[in-house]
Amino acid sequence: MKLDNIDKKLLEELSEDGRLSYVELAEKVGLSRVAVKDRIKNLKEKGVIEKFTVVINSEKFGKQVSAFFDIDVEPKQLQEVAQNLANHPQVASIYQMTGPSTLHTHVLVEDFQKLEVFINEELYSVEGITRVESSIILKRFKSRTGFKL
Predict the structure, then answer these.
(1) Is the N or the C terminus of the chain less surrounded, counting Cβ atoms within 10 Å?
(2) Which Pfam family name is an example for this entry (predicted)?
């Protein structure tokens, strides 16, 4: 979908603060409230805007350990393993990567003991997983919350 400068500006403003009202957005882009509402409705219908959400600081919510896993899976079991992991409440995101049948997974847990339990019970014990490589985040400098224009 081709976006004009006004659509791009709306998306930038909503990326910064998704709670802006149509009136506030209209003031920022120089359109009427109704025109802004119609544009946002169109962006949602076209799938450019997937949803409106809130970004929660996981550390403030008690999730002190943030870890990434590259998980190699037997190809015939990739979908099943990915779906099972995606349904786990400690899994923040999961992506299929290029190369071997690899799942790149971001996990948030309360402490290292919970991380150990997750690794042993949710990864090492799963049929089809052939390799697990982990990295623990020491410090966050930037976190992507959406596509930047």
Answers:
(1) N
(2) HTH_24
Residue 3 identity (one-letter amino acid):
L
SS3 106: strand
According to DSSP, residue 7 is labeled H
Q: Which CATH class is domain 5-45?
A: mainly alpha
Q: Say what the pTM is.
A: 0.76
Instruction: Please give the average pLDDT of every successive group of 10 residues along the chain, which has 149 residues.
Output: 91 91 96 96 94 83 93 96 95 91 96 96 94 92 66
Domain limits, CATH 3.30.70.920, in the chain: 65-136
- Please say whether the dihedral angle defined by the alpha carbons of residues 95, 50, 18 and 9, taken in this order, is positive or negative: positive
| CATH 1.20.120.1770 describes domain 65-136 | no
Q: Max CA-CA distance within the chain?
A: 57
What was the pLDDT predicted at 131?
94
Q: Residue 61: its pLDDT value, please?
A: 85
Distance CA 100, CA 108 (A): 25
Asked if 85 contacts 122 with a C-beta cutoff of 8 angstroms, the reply is yes
pLDDT of residue 75: 95
Q: CA of 78: how far to CAs of 128, 129, 130, in Å?
A: 8, 9, 11
